[in-house]
Each structure stands twice: as C-alpha cells, then as structure tokens.
Amino acid sequence: MNQQSDHSIHEQEHLALLASTQVVIKKALQKLGYPEAMYELLKEPLRMLTVRIPVRMDDGSVRVFTGYRAQHNDAVGPTKGGVRFHPNVTEPEVIALSIWMSLKAGIVDLPYGGGKGGIVCDPRTMSFRELEALSRGYVRAISQVVGPAKDIPAPDVFTNSQIMAWMMDEYSRIREFDSPGFITGKPLVLGGSRGRETATAKGVTIMIREAAKKRGIDIEGARVIIQGFGNAGSFLAKFMHDAGAKVIAISDAYGSLHDPEGLDIPHLLDRRDSFGTITNQFKNTISNKEMLELDCDILVPAAVENQITKENADQIKADILVEAANGPTTLEATEILHKRGILLVPDVLASAGGVTVSYFEWVQNNQGYYWSEEEVEKKLEEIMVNAFENVYQTAHSRQVDMRLAAYMVGVRKMAEASRFRGWV
Ligand code: GLU
C-alpha cells in the first residue's frame, strides 16, 4: 500500500470517529434540553489552523511537514490540549480530539475549553535535532493563536517534556519574556508540575479502583490487560503492579506479551524505549487482536483509536473496560459492551487526569508558587473521584450508558457558558 492511500484510509477512519462523537454530543445536548443551535455551535471547533512547517533535515534536504491546531470552544476559558506527533495524524482526528478535550475539561470542571494539535510526522525516524527544529517551527507557525490566556498546548502521543521545553523556549523568544504558562508537561526545572508525568496513569488508576469497587472486584490479584506501553500504559502497568494486580498482558505497536501468572513489569519498564517499544526484544509475542480477547477482569486500551469495534466487542472478556487512550472504542462497540453489562469508563473521563494536572501546572506557573507532589496527588484524587461519581450517577439516574453520561456531564459547562455569553 502506498503512503497516500494509507493516509486516506486513516482520514476515513477519523471522519467516522468525528461523526460518532458528533452523534453523542447531539444526544447529550438533547437530553439536557438545549436547542439545535447549541449543537450547531459545538459540533465543530470554533477555529482550525493548518500550517506548513519547513525543516532542514540532517542530510541537508528540506522537508515540509503539515501541522494542525484546533480550538473547539473558548466560552469557559482558554482552550487546552496536547500536540500529537504521528504519521497518521489527520485534520478530522485533531478536530475530534479537540472536542474530547472540551468534554474532559467539563467533566473534571476546569476553567478551559478544548484544543488539540498534531503534526504529520514519524518522530521514531527523526533525530533529536530534527525534532527540535520541527517543534520550534510548529510554535512559530501557530504563535499568533496560542498563549497562556488563549490556548495552552501539552504533550500527547509521541511528544514529551523535552518537546514541551523547546516549544516553551521558542514561544518565550517570540514574545520576548519567559512564558512558562504557554505550555504544560514541561520538565520540572522549567516550571513543570510535580506529578504531571504520571498524572494520566494516576487518574486511570483511580478510575480502575472506583469502577472495581462498584463491581466488587479486589484490585489485589485482579487480572489486568494494558494495550500500549507509552506514557499512560507504562506508568499504569507500574501502578497496577504496585497495587498487587496481575498485569497478564501488555502491548506496543508491534505485538503483545502475555503471561497468565503476571508479567515482570519492573523488568519491562527498564527495557522499554522512549516511544514505549518493548515487544521487539521478545520472541513469544501474540497479536494485539489476540490480546484484547484474553480472559481478564480489567481491560485498559492505552494506545490509539478504533481498537474495540463491532468485530471484537462480543469477544471482550473483561468485567471493566477503562479507556486510557482517546477514542479506542467505537459507538457500535460501546452499545454491545453496554448490553453485555461490561462497565465502561469512557476516555473523556478516564484519561482526564493528564489535563487536570496540566491545569495545576498552569496555575502554579501563573502564581509562581510550586506545590508538593502530595498536594498535587491529593487534589487530583479528589477531582477524579468526584468526576467518576458524577458520571456514574448520571448514567444511573438518566438510564444512559457511561459514554453518553460522560458527554452529558462534559458538555454542560461549555453549553451554559456559551448561553451566558449570548452566543446561543
Ligand atoms: N494530551 C492529553 C490528553 O489528551 C493531555 C492534555 C493536556 O494536558 O492539556 O488529555
């Protein structure tokens, strides 16, 4: 398959992802009694910028990369959300991701709307210097529409604190003053927050614990499968292992490792590379598809979109499915899982720990006063537990599935803010 058709296949998939997000937004707004015009406002981002970023590569040639920044809704406050570096990034994907960020901010009650960025590139094949040039070029290209009180980027798939540092430095140079509040997920020495690196996984851990309580499952000894060994997946494997759970399978983009007795997580964490690749060091791997269908108590997709679909939803054996990734389960699959009585903790709730601690980071940058790790963790815990209860109770009282409940909780604040501003 050539690169072009490969990309258009992803585009088709992402368009479907966006369409299903819009379906749930529409249902949520209807349930909450908002007029059609509110849906018209919230179904797409307010702003979408496409940029072209020329980068001089190490071999002397120039490559021009395509990047995006979507700002979904800024009625509540500045937009907020990560930047993804991935070869499959497309415009509809970035749009869907920006809408999900708005929902996350609503669910954990942050003073933000959602934003998202992406660059079509494969950082696994680029040198440190090329990545720096690309990161800086992206900031120069979007600098007019972002800022600490406008739109605040952060890490996402294949971006990390070093990339945030370059981006912060570039922005500060453009503005001619130090602007740590421009971006979150920075290294500690540049104004990063304690607890940010592990925040998404910590939030997911709290969600697993709360969901397990509802289902009467003891975390100690529970069999857990984690798809993806990046920032969220790898720290989550550690936290689950530390809590006495049996992590029986993990995976990366190339394959999966399985041991019914529980994998040696500390050993795997030591050997993973910075992109979360690990399975290439082992012979006895199974496929990602096989892994998702293994018998387990808790399944956590922590990688990419569209992993649980109508093709495999009937084969999922878990009692609880917690979405650490954005968009891993399609709408048809959500319906099948709901009918089968599997407790689903949807992405916009489960992965909101990352943006929550990003908010703490931004607050600390604005205050110039830095908190202890205990303080960050205590506040994160409180916010995530409340958010879970809120969504869980909404699902029960309104007789809807957990995804629709999360959308109802998530969309309300931005709809109210848009109404008060007189937009709708
Ligand atoms: N990229 C993360 C997410 O999808 C974090 C965003 C942020 O910290 O602003 O939630």
Question: What's the layout of helices and strands?
Answer:
Elements: H1 3-32, H2 36-42, E1 47-56, E2 62-71, E3 79-80, E4 83-86, H3 91-107, E5 113-120, H4 128-142, E6 151-152, H5 161-175, H6 199-215, E7 223-227, H7 231-242, E8 246-252, E9 255-258, H8 265-271, H9 288-292, E10 298-301, E11 320-322, H10 331-339, E12 343-345, H11 347-350, H12 353-367, H13 373-397, H14 402-420
Parallel strand pairs: 3-5, 3-6, 4-5, 7-8, 7-10, 10-11, 11-12
Antiparallel strand pairs: 1-2, 2-5, 8-9
Helix pairs in contact: 1-2, 1-3, 1-14, 3-14, 4-5, 6-7, 6-12, 6-13, 12-13, 13-14
The chain binds glutamic acid.
Quick structural gist:
With 424 residues, the protein is an alpha/beta fold. It has 14 helices and 12 strands. Helix content is 46%, strand content 15%.
Give your account of this protein's structure.
The protein is of the alpha/beta class and 424 residues long. It contains 14 helices and 12 strands. The chain has helices spanning 3-32, 36-42, 91-107, 128-142, 161-175, 199-215, 231-242, 265-271, 288-292, 331-339, 347-350, 353-367, 373-397, 402-420, and strands at 47-56, 62-71, 79-80, 83-86, 113-120, 151-152, 223-227, 246-252, 255-258, 298-301, 320-322, 343-345. Strands 1, 2, 3, 4, 5 and 6 form a 6-stranded mixed beta sheet that branches. Helix 4 (128-142) crosses helix 5 (161-175) and helix 6 packs across helix 13 (373-397). The protein is globular, with a radius of gyration of 20 Å. The structure holds glutamic acid. Residues 80-82, 104, 154, 156, 184, 326, 351, 354-355, 358 line the site of glutamic acid.
